Amino acid sequence: MNNTNGKKNLTIAGTDIDEIKRLNSQSGLSYNEVKRLLAGNFNNKHK
């Protein structure tokens, strides 16, 4: 993905920021999402 001026959004080291964001969005649940899911399941079972 390119920003509006046609250049890639890169870090100083050359990492493509937009590509990392795209890959992260496809990677599944985050650590905090898993914690919330587990806490919700635990609370529902112990009511």
In words, what does this structure look like?
By secondary structure, this protein is mostly helical. It has one domain (6-47). Helix content is 51%, strand content 0%. It contains two helices and no strands. It has helices at residues 17-25, 31-45. The longest helix has 15 residues, at 31-45. The radius of gyration is 18 Å and the shape is rod-shaped. The N and C termini lie far apart (47 Å). 0% of the residues are buried.
List keywords for this structure.
single chain, 47 residues, mainly alpha, 2 helices
Describe the global form.
rod-shaped
Strand-residue proportion:
under 5%
Oligomeric state of the chains present here: single chain
- Count of DSSP helices? 2
End-to-end separation: 47 Å
Average pLDDT reading: 88
Q: How many whole angstroms does the radius of gyration measure?
A: 18 Å
Secondary structure class reads: mainly alpha
Give the biggest beta sheet: none
Task: List unreliable stretches of 5+ residues.
Answer: none
Instruction: Provide the succession of SSEs.
Output: HH
Query: Which bin fits the share of residues in helices?
Result: 40-55%
Please report the total strand number as a whole number.
0
Domain count: the total is: 1
